[in-house]
Amino acid sequence: MQPDLKSIHNQVSAVMPGVNRLLIKKFSLPKKVSYKAGGIDHLSTSVVTETDKEVEKILKTKLLKILPGSGFIGEETVPDAKEYNWIIDPIDGTLNFANQVPVFACSIGLWHKNQPVYAYVSLPMSGETIHAISGQGIWLNGRLVKLIRKPSQKLFITYSAVGDKKTVADTIIKVLEFSSGPRTYGSCVFHGAQIALGRIDAGVFINQALWDIAAIVLLAREAGLAVKYVSKQPNISQDDLKNYQYSLVIAPEKLADNLAAKL
């Protein structure tokens, strides 16, 4: 039986103000930064702070109480997958956070098997929360959003690419066929949320982890946008969930098709 997603959202909404206060407080403080092997390029490194681990621990404790018997897949912990799974990125954009650049997000997705059913993204520094329940649209700070932006002649496109220099360069070159000034803000979740809200026309996401896309896939779909995978789609019971392996495009249908065809 499907859980009561509205009740789940109300409970998540009660948890997140405390998490946001913690993130805002820690944002301006000195941070203990460490590095771990990053993504598919084992010569690169990924930044992690003590706050990433602290927030993920809080969310794991709270969310598993909200939905007893659910699984948990987080960036900083060992995956424990069940039928329903919380998929968490405590700080997406940790390098920004560590350097006091105020562009990062806290991402929560709830998936039933291989499909998202609930998403919650917090942008603490701008005071915005975006959530979606499958089939009920996308909501900004508790108000239903209707997509108002249509792609213009000068497309506003963002990209997020994990990998070696060639992978990143190839991604930029392909996106340049559509936009003379593609942007990257250092947070896949931030990109996805802005696209879903209609502020950015499209996004290209190359070699992302499941926690990077878990929330934004549902936000995009509920905003009426197309999500086109150019890699295999997630299969939680079979995939190496710590690997960076999912590539996709989020955009209006025609633009998404055209972008995906080039990747």
Automatic annotation (TrEMBL):
Species this chain originates from: Candidatus Beckwithbacteria bacterium CG23_combo_of_CG06-09_8_20_14_all_47_9
Domain of life: Bacteria
Protein name: Inositol monophosphatase
Any GO BP: inositol metabolic process
Entry keywords, A to Z: Hydrolase, Magnesium, Metal-binding
Gene Ontology MF terms: inositol monophosphate 1-phosphatase activity; metal ion binding
Presence of keyword Hydrolase: yes
SUPFAM superfamilies linked to this entry: Carbohydrate phosphatase
Residues involved in Mg(2+) binding: 75, 89, 91-92, 212
Cofactor: Mg(2+)
Presence of keyword Transmembrane: no
A Pfam family this chain is assigned to: Inositol_P
